[in-house]
Amino acid sequence: MSTGFFSTEKIAFEGEDSRNPLAFRHYDPNEVVLGKRLEDHLRFACAYWHSFAWPGGDPFGGQTFDRPWFPDRMSDEMAAANLKADVAFEMFSALGVPYFCFHDGDVRPEGDSFSENTKNLNVIVDLFEKKMAVTGVKLLWGTANLFSHRRFMSGAATNPDPDVFAYSAATIKTCMDATHRLGGENYVLWGGREGYETLLNTDLAQEDQQMGRMLNMVVDYKHKIGFNGTILVEPKPQEPTKHQYDFDVATVYGFLKRHGLEKEVKVNIEQGHAILAGHTFEHELATATALGIFGSVDMNRNDYQSGWDTDQFPNNTPEVAMAYYHILKAGGLTTGGTNFDAKLRRQSLDPDDLLAGHIGAMDTCARGLKAAAAMMEDGGLQKALDDRYQRWTAPDAQKMLNGDLDLAQIAEKVIAEDINPEPSSGRQEILENYVNRFV
Q: Where does this protein chiefly localize (predicted)?
Protein backbone atom coordinates (compact mmCIF):
# COMPACT_ATOMS: atom_id res chain seq x y z
CA MET A 1 0.00 0.00 0.00
CA SER A 2 1.30 3.45 -0.89
CA THR A 3 2.55 5.71 1.89
CA GLY A 4 1.30 8.76 -0.02
CA PHE A 5 4.66 10.47 0.38
CA PHE A 6 4.93 11.26 -3.36
CA SER A 7 2.15 12.65 -5.56
CA THR A 8 2.57 9.95 -8.23
CA GLU A 9 3.39 6.26 -8.30
CA LYS A 10 4.96 6.13 -11.79
CA ILE A 11 7.06 8.49 -13.89
CA ALA A 12 6.27 8.06 -17.58
CA PHE A 13 8.30 8.85 -20.68
CA GLU A 14 6.41 11.60 -22.53
CA GLY A 15 9.01 12.81 -25.06
CA GLU A 16 10.77 16.09 -25.74
CA ASP A 17 7.59 18.15 -26.13
CA SER A 18 6.30 17.32 -22.64
CA ARG A 19 5.94 20.16 -20.15
CA ASN A 20 5.17 17.82 -17.28
CA PRO A 21 7.86 18.32 -14.57
CA LEU A 22 7.26 14.76 -13.37
CA ALA A 23 7.82 13.01 -16.70
CA PHE A 24 10.86 11.88 -18.67
CA ARG A 25 11.56 13.85 -21.84
CA HIS A 26 14.72 12.02 -23.00
CA TYR A 27 15.00 8.82 -20.99
CA ASP A 28 13.04 5.98 -22.56
CA PRO A 29 14.43 2.84 -20.90
CA ASN A 30 13.50 0.69 -23.90
CA GLU A 31 15.14 2.89 -26.54
CA VAL A 32 17.90 0.91 -28.26
CA VAL A 33 21.29 2.62 -28.67
CA LEU A 34 24.31 0.76 -30.07
CA GLY A 35 22.31 -2.45 -29.90
CA LYS A 36 21.42 -2.15 -26.21
CA ARG A 37 18.49 -0.69 -24.27
CA LEU A 38 19.15 2.64 -22.55
CA GLU A 39 18.29 1.08 -19.20
CA ASP A 40 20.97 -1.55 -19.74
CA HIS A 41 23.55 1.03 -20.82
CA LEU A 42 22.95 3.45 -17.96
CA ARG A 43 22.16 1.04 -15.10
CA PHE A 44 20.71 3.80 -12.92
CA ALA A 45 20.84 3.59 -9.12
CA CYS A 46 19.46 5.82 -6.37
CA ALA A 47 21.58 6.63 -3.32
CA TYR A 48 19.78 5.82 -0.07
CA TRP A 49 21.81 8.29 2.03
CA HIS A 50 21.25 11.65 0.34
CA SER A 51 17.70 10.81 -0.68
CA PHE A 52 16.35 9.49 2.62
CA ALA A 53 18.89 10.01 5.43
CA TRP A 54 20.16 13.56 4.82
CA PRO A 55 18.22 16.17 6.84
CA GLY A 56 19.02 19.17 4.64
CA GLY A 57 21.83 20.66 6.71
CA ASP A 58 25.02 22.40 5.68
CA PRO A 59 28.13 23.61 7.60
CA PHE A 60 26.23 26.67 8.81
CA GLY A 61 22.73 25.32 9.43
CA GLY A 62 20.85 22.27 10.53
CA GLN A 63 17.81 20.35 9.40
CA THR A 64 15.46 21.90 6.87
CA PHE A 65 13.64 18.77 5.66
CA ASP A 66 10.59 17.42 7.44
CA ARG A 67 10.42 13.68 6.81
CA PRO A 68 8.00 11.46 8.74
CA TRP A 69 10.75 8.92 9.57
CA PHE A 70 13.12 11.51 11.10
CA PRO A 71 13.80 11.22 14.88
CA ASP A 72 11.87 14.40 15.69
CA ARG A 73 8.77 12.85 14.10
CA MET A 74 9.08 9.17 15.06
CA SER A 75 10.69 7.96 18.29
CA ASP A 76 10.60 4.23 17.41
CA GLU A 77 13.81 3.96 15.41
CA MET A 78 13.12 0.56 13.84
CA ALA A 79 9.61 1.65 12.84
CA ALA A 80 11.17 4.75 11.29
CA ALA A 81 13.68 2.61 9.37
CA ASN A 82 10.80 0.49 8.05
CA LEU A 83 8.85 3.56 6.91
CA LYS A 84 11.98 4.96 5.29
CA ALA A 85 12.37 1.71 3.34
CA ASP A 86 8.72 1.83 2.27
CA VAL A 87 9.18 5.34 0.83
CA ALA A 88 12.55 4.48 -0.71
CA PHE A 89 11.20 1.54 -2.69
CA GLU A 90 8.20 3.61 -3.73
CA MET A 91 10.62 6.12 -5.25
CA PHE A 92 12.77 3.43 -6.90
CA SER A 93 9.64 1.97 -8.48
CA ALA A 94 8.21 5.33 -9.51
CA LEU A 95 11.43 6.27 -11.29
CA GLY A 96 11.90 2.80 -12.75
CA VAL A 97 15.53 2.63 -11.65
CA PRO A 98 16.89 -0.92 -11.71
CA TYR A 99 19.24 -0.44 -8.72
CA PHE A 100 19.83 1.27 -5.40
CA CYS A 101 22.89 1.72 -3.13
CA PHE A 102 23.24 2.06 0.64
CA HIS A 103 25.56 2.46 3.63
CA ASP A 104 24.68 0.47 6.74
CA GLY A 105 24.15 3.68 8.69
CA ASP A 106 21.57 4.91 6.16
CA VAL A 107 19.20 2.03 6.64
CA ARG A 108 19.47 0.90 10.28
CA PRO A 109 19.45 2.76 13.62
CA GLU A 110 22.75 3.19 15.45
CA GLY A 111 22.82 0.74 18.33
CA ASP A 112 24.64 0.77 21.64
CA SER A 113 27.08 -1.91 20.47
CA PHE A 114 28.47 -3.57 17.39
CA SER A 115 26.19 -6.55 17.98
CA GLU A 116 23.12 -4.32 18.12
CA ASN A 117 24.18 -2.58 14.90
CA THR A 118 24.51 -5.97 13.21
CA LYS A 119 21.12 -7.09 14.51
CA ASN A 120 19.46 -3.89 13.28
CA LEU A 121 21.09 -4.21 9.87
CA ASN A 122 19.97 -7.79 9.45
CA VAL A 123 16.37 -6.84 10.26
CA ILE A 124 16.45 -4.28 7.45
CA VAL A 125 18.15 -6.72 5.09
CA ASP A 126 15.22 -9.09 5.71
CA LEU A 127 12.87 -6.27 4.72
CA PHE A 128 14.96 -5.37 1.66
CA GLU A 129 14.84 -8.96 0.44
CA LYS A 130 11.04 -8.87 0.44
CA LYS A 131 10.83 -5.47 -1.24
CA MET A 132 13.39 -6.40 -3.89
CA ALA A 133 11.43 -9.56 -4.69
CA VAL A 134 8.20 -7.58 -5.13
CA THR A 135 9.60 -4.60 -7.06
CA GLY A 136 12.43 -6.22 -9.04
CA VAL A 137 14.81 -3.47 -7.89
CA LYS A 138 18.35 -4.80 -7.34
CA LEU A 139 21.35 -3.73 -5.28
CA LEU A 140 24.15 -2.10 -7.26
CA TRP A 141 26.42 -1.89 -4.23
CA GLY A 142 26.57 -1.75 -0.49
CA THR A 143 29.13 -0.11 1.75
CA ALA A 144 29.91 0.68 5.38
CA ASN A 145 29.72 4.14 6.91
CA LEU A 146 33.11 4.37 8.60
CA PHE A 147 33.27 8.15 8.88
CA SER A 148 30.21 9.72 10.56
CA HIS A 149 30.43 8.35 14.11
CA ARG A 150 32.94 10.01 16.44
CA ARG A 151 34.83 6.71 16.83
CA PHE A 152 36.08 7.25 13.26
CA MET A 153 37.29 10.82 13.75
CA SER A 154 40.90 9.68 13.24
CA GLY A 155 40.09 7.27 10.44
CA ALA A 156 38.88 3.68 10.19
CA ALA A 157 41.50 1.43 8.61
CA THR A 158 44.13 4.11 9.26
CA ASN A 159 43.16 4.82 12.87
CA PRO A 160 46.02 4.88 15.44
CA ASP A 161 43.85 2.76 17.75
CA PRO A 162 43.83 -0.94 16.72
CA ASP A 163 40.43 -1.35 18.38
CA VAL A 164 38.94 1.08 15.86
CA PHE A 165 40.65 -0.88 13.07
CA ALA A 166 39.06 -4.07 14.44
CA TYR A 167 35.62 -2.45 14.79
CA SER A 168 35.92 -1.17 11.21
CA ALA A 169 36.94 -4.60 9.90
CA ALA A 170 33.99 -6.24 11.66
CA THR A 171 31.60 -3.61 10.27
CA ILE A 172 32.90 -4.14 6.74
CA LYS A 173 32.35 -7.88 7.15
CA THR A 174 28.72 -7.44 8.15
CA CYS A 175 28.13 -5.03 5.27
CA MET A 176 29.78 -7.40 2.79
CA ASP A 177 27.59 -10.20 4.14
CA ALA A 178 24.50 -8.03 3.66
CA THR A 179 25.57 -7.03 0.16
CA HIS A 180 26.26 -10.65 -0.79
CA ARG A 181 22.95 -11.82 0.64
CA LEU A 182 21.05 -9.17 -1.35
CA GLY A 183 22.80 -10.10 -4.61
CA GLY A 184 24.77 -6.87 -4.79
CA GLU A 185 26.88 -6.51 -7.91
CA ASN A 186 29.66 -4.54 -6.22
CA TYR A 187 30.99 -3.61 -2.79
CA VAL A 188 32.41 -0.10 -2.29
CA LEU A 189 35.01 1.16 0.16
CA TRP A 190 34.70 4.89 0.66
CA GLY A 191 37.47 6.19 2.89
CA GLY A 192 35.77 9.29 4.23
CA ARG A 193 38.39 9.85 6.91
CA GLU A 194 41.31 7.78 5.62
CA GLY A 195 43.86 10.57 5.67
CA TYR A 196 45.32 13.08 8.08
CA GLU A 197 45.03 16.65 9.32
CA THR A 198 48.66 17.16 10.34
CA LEU A 199 51.93 15.24 10.04
CA LEU A 200 52.75 16.22 13.63
CA ASN A 201 50.74 13.22 14.83
CA THR A 202 50.73 10.99 11.74
CA ASP A 203 52.93 8.04 10.73
CA LEU A 204 52.34 7.78 6.97
CA ALA A 205 54.08 4.44 6.55
CA GLN A 206 52.14 2.87 9.44
CA GLU A 207 48.80 4.09 8.13
CA ASP A 208 49.56 2.91 4.58
CA GLN A 209 50.34 -0.54 5.97
CA GLN A 210 47.06 -0.60 7.89
CA MET A 211 45.03 0.54 4.88
CA GLY A 212 46.69 -2.04 2.64
CA ARG A 213 46.06 -4.80 5.15
CA MET A 214 42.38 -3.88 5.44
CA LEU A 215 41.84 -3.94 1.68
CA ASN A 216 43.66 -7.26 1.34
CA MET A 217 41.38 -8.71 4.00
CA VAL A 218 38.34 -7.42 2.10
CA VAL A 219 39.52 -9.14 -1.08
CA ASP A 220 40.29 -12.35 0.81
CA TYR A 221 36.84 -12.33 2.40
CA LYS A 222 35.19 -11.72 -0.97
CA HIS A 223 36.69 -14.97 -2.25
CA LYS A 224 35.99 -16.82 1.00
CA ILE A 225 32.23 -16.16 0.83
CA GLY A 226 32.00 -16.57 -2.93
CA PHE A 227 31.00 -12.98 -3.63
CA ASN A 228 31.21 -12.57 -7.41
CA GLY A 229 30.77 -8.81 -7.42
CA THR A 230 33.49 -6.21 -7.92
CA ILE A 231 35.35 -4.58 -5.04
CA LEU A 232 35.45 -0.83 -5.66
CA VAL A 233 37.44 1.97 -4.03
CA GLU A 234 36.06 5.48 -4.39
CA PRO A 235 38.72 8.21 -4.84
CA LYS A 236 38.03 11.16 -2.57
CA PRO A 237 40.24 14.24 -2.09
CA GLN A 238 40.74 16.59 0.88
CA GLU A 239 37.24 16.65 2.29
CA PRO A 240 36.74 16.26 5.15
CA THR A 241 40.33 15.19 5.85
CA LYS A 242 42.98 17.67 4.72
CA HIS A 243 45.13 15.00 3.01
CA GLN A 244 43.21 11.94 1.76
CA TYR A 245 45.14 8.77 0.93
CA ASP A 246 42.68 7.98 -1.91
CA PHE A 247 42.98 11.46 -3.47
CA ASP A 248 42.31 10.55 -7.12
CA VAL A 249 42.36 7.62 -9.55
CA ALA A 250 46.12 7.74 -10.10
CA THR A 251 46.79 7.80 -6.35
CA VAL A 252 44.46 4.84 -5.79
CA TYR A 253 46.18 2.91 -8.58
CA GLY A 254 49.57 3.49 -6.96
CA PHE A 255 48.17 2.22 -3.66
CA LEU A 256 46.70 -0.87 -5.34
CA LYS A 257 49.99 -1.64 -7.08
CA ARG A 258 51.90 -1.17 -3.84
CA HIS A 259 49.74 -3.75 -2.09
CA GLY A 260 49.35 -6.19 -4.99
CA LEU A 261 45.65 -5.45 -5.55
CA GLU A 262 45.56 -3.89 -9.02
CA LYS A 263 44.00 -7.04 -10.49
CA GLU A 264 41.42 -7.38 -7.71
CA VAL A 265 40.03 -3.89 -7.13
CA LYS A 266 38.55 -1.22 -9.40
CA VAL A 267 37.39 2.35 -8.80
CA ASN A 268 34.02 4.00 -8.36
CA ILE A 269 34.53 7.52 -9.73
CA GLU A 270 32.45 10.48 -8.58
CA GLN A 271 32.23 13.60 -10.71
CA GLY A 272 32.25 15.87 -7.66
CA HIS A 273 35.36 14.24 -6.24
CA ALA A 274 37.14 14.64 -9.57
CA ILE A 275 36.50 18.38 -9.39
CA LEU A 276 37.74 18.61 -5.79
CA ALA A 277 40.94 16.85 -6.88
CA GLY A 278 41.55 19.54 -9.51
CA HIS A 279 40.62 17.24 -12.41
CA THR A 280 37.69 16.80 -14.74
CA PHE A 281 35.35 13.83 -14.60
CA GLU A 282 36.53 12.96 -18.10
CA HIS A 283 40.16 12.92 -16.93
CA GLU A 284 39.47 10.53 -14.07
CA LEU A 285 37.48 8.19 -16.31
CA ALA A 286 40.17 8.22 -19.00
CA THR A 287 42.85 7.53 -16.38
CA ALA A 288 40.91 4.62 -14.90
CA THR A 289 40.22 3.03 -18.28
CA ALA A 290 43.86 3.48 -19.35
CA LEU A 291 45.01 1.74 -16.14
CA GLY A 292 42.40 -1.00 -16.42
CA ILE A 293 40.66 -0.24 -13.12
CA PHE A 294 37.41 1.42 -14.19
CA GLY A 295 34.39 0.04 -12.36
CA SER A 296 31.44 2.36 -11.74
CA VAL A 297 30.38 6.01 -11.39
CA ASP A 298 28.62 8.31 -8.96
CA MET A 299 26.96 10.83 -11.25
CA ASN A 300 26.62 14.22 -9.63
CA ARG A 301 28.19 17.65 -9.96
CA ASN A 302 29.78 20.26 -7.76
CA ASP A 303 29.17 23.97 -7.72
CA TYR A 304 32.31 25.29 -9.38
CA GLN A 305 32.26 28.39 -7.17
CA SER A 306 32.19 26.37 -3.94
CA GLY A 307 35.23 24.65 -2.50
CA TRP A 308 33.39 21.67 -1.11
CA ASP A 309 31.38 18.67 -2.21
CA THR A 310 27.90 20.03 -3.05
CA ASP A 311 26.60 16.76 -4.57
CA GLN A 312 24.13 18.28 -7.02
CA PHE A 313 22.18 16.36 -9.62
CA PRO A 314 23.89 16.44 -13.05
CA ASN A 315 22.52 18.90 -15.61
CA ASN A 316 25.49 19.50 -17.93
CA THR A 317 24.86 17.40 -21.04
CA PRO A 318 28.20 18.10 -22.80
CA GLU A 319 30.14 17.08 -19.68
CA VAL A 320 28.04 13.95 -19.21
CA ALA A 321 28.38 13.10 -22.91
CA MET A 322 32.16 13.04 -22.69
CA ALA A 323 31.98 10.93 -19.54
CA TYR A 324 29.87 8.31 -21.29
CA TYR A 325 32.08 8.51 -24.36
CA HIS A 326 35.01 7.24 -22.28
CA ILE A 327 32.79 4.67 -20.57
CA LEU A 328 31.56 3.35 -23.92
CA LYS A 329 35.13 3.23 -25.24
CA ALA A 330 36.04 1.09 -22.25
CA GLY A 331 33.27 -1.38 -23.08
CA GLY A 332 30.49 0.23 -21.05
CA LEU A 333 29.28 -0.39 -17.53
CA THR A 334 29.57 -4.09 -16.65
CA THR A 335 28.96 -4.72 -12.95
CA GLY A 336 29.04 -0.96 -12.41
CA GLY A 337 26.27 1.57 -12.87
CA THR A 338 25.25 5.22 -12.77
CA ASN A 339 24.54 5.99 -9.12
CA PHE A 340 23.10 9.39 -8.26
CA ASP A 341 25.16 10.35 -5.21
CA ALA A 342 23.23 13.61 -5.32
CA LYS A 343 21.00 15.51 -2.94
CA LEU A 344 18.38 18.22 -3.11
CA ARG A 345 19.18 21.80 -2.26
CA ARG A 346 18.24 22.45 1.37
CA GLN A 347 15.47 24.83 0.22
CA SER A 348 13.83 22.11 -1.92
CA LEU A 349 11.42 20.91 0.74
CA ASP A 350 8.67 19.09 -1.16
CA PRO A 351 8.78 15.29 -1.60
CA ASP A 352 8.21 15.66 -5.34
CA ASP A 353 11.43 17.71 -5.55
CA LEU A 354 13.20 14.41 -4.90
CA LEU A 355 11.51 12.88 -7.93
CA ALA A 356 12.22 15.94 -10.06
CA GLY A 357 15.93 15.92 -9.21
CA HIS A 358 16.28 12.32 -10.34
CA ILE A 359 14.11 12.84 -13.44
CA GLY A 360 16.28 15.71 -14.66
CA ALA A 361 19.44 13.77 -13.91
CA MET A 362 18.22 10.67 -15.74
CA ASP A 363 17.19 12.77 -18.74
CA THR A 364 20.61 14.47 -18.75
CA CYS A 365 22.37 11.11 -18.66
CA ALA A 366 20.19 9.74 -21.44
CA ARG A 367 20.96 12.76 -23.65
CA GLY A 368 24.65 12.46 -22.81
CA LEU A 369 24.84 8.74 -23.55
CA LYS A 370 23.00 9.12 -26.86
CA ALA A 371 25.41 11.90 -27.86
CA ALA A 372 28.36 9.74 -26.85
CA ALA A 373 26.99 6.82 -28.85
CA ALA A 374 26.56 9.06 -31.89
CA MET A 375 30.19 10.16 -31.61
CA MET A 376 31.26 6.54 -31.31
CA GLU A 377 29.31 5.61 -34.45
CA ASP A 378 30.61 8.62 -36.38
CA GLY A 379 34.19 7.84 -35.34
CA GLY A 380 35.49 11.38 -35.73
CA LEU A 381 37.24 11.60 -32.36
CA GLN A 382 38.84 8.19 -32.71
CA LYS A 383 40.03 9.01 -36.23
CA ALA A 384 41.58 12.24 -34.96
CA LEU A 385 43.45 10.28 -32.27
CA ASP A 386 44.56 7.60 -34.73
CA ASP A 387 45.83 10.25 -37.15
CA ARG A 388 47.72 12.13 -34.44
CA TYR A 389 49.59 9.05 -33.24
CA GLN A 390 49.81 7.11 -36.50
CA ARG A 391 53.56 7.69 -36.91
CA TRP A 392 54.08 5.60 -33.75
CA THR A 393 52.95 2.55 -35.75
CA ALA A 394 56.06 2.77 -37.98
CA PRO A 395 58.72 0.06 -37.33
CA ASP A 396 61.40 2.48 -36.07
CA ALA A 397 58.97 4.15 -33.70
CA GLN A 398 57.88 0.77 -32.37
CA LYS A 399 61.52 -0.16 -31.75
CA MET A 400 61.91 2.92 -29.55
CA LEU A 401 58.70 2.20 -27.69
CA ASN A 402 59.41 -1.50 -27.16
CA GLY A 403 62.95 -1.02 -25.89
CA ASP A 404 64.73 -2.37 -28.98
CA LEU A 405 66.71 0.87 -29.19
CA ASP A 406 68.54 2.39 -26.25
CA LEU A 407 69.31 6.04 -25.64
CA ALA A 408 72.65 5.96 -27.45
CA GLN A 409 71.18 4.18 -30.48
CA ILE A 410 68.36 6.68 -30.71
CA ALA A 411 70.87 9.54 -30.56
CA GLU A 412 72.88 7.93 -33.40
CA LYS A 413 69.68 7.63 -35.43
CA VAL A 414 68.83 11.31 -34.95
CA ILE A 415 72.33 12.31 -36.15
CA ALA A 416 72.43 9.85 -39.05
CA GLU A 417 68.99 10.82 -40.38
CA ASP A 418 69.35 14.51 -39.54
CA ILE A 419 66.03 14.42 -37.67
CA ASN A 420 64.76 17.94 -36.98
CA PRO A 421 61.00 17.66 -36.44
CA GLU A 422 58.41 20.42 -36.97
CA PRO A 423 55.35 20.39 -34.68
CA SER A 424 51.89 19.52 -35.95
CA SER A 425 48.63 21.20 -34.94
CA GLY A 426 46.68 19.64 -32.10
CA ARG A 427 43.45 20.91 -33.75
CA GLN A 428 41.79 21.41 -30.36
CA GLU A 429 39.27 23.99 -31.57
CA ILE A 430 38.19 21.78 -34.48
CA LEU A 431 37.67 18.87 -32.10
CA GLU A 432 35.72 21.01 -29.62
CA ASN A 433 33.50 22.15 -32.49
CA TYR A 434 33.09 18.52 -33.53
CA VAL A 435 31.82 17.54 -30.06
CA ASN A 436 29.37 20.42 -30.04
CA ARG A 437 27.74 19.00 -33.19
CA PHE A 438 26.47 16.10 -31.08
CA VAL A 439 25.51 17.76 -27.81
A: cytoplasm
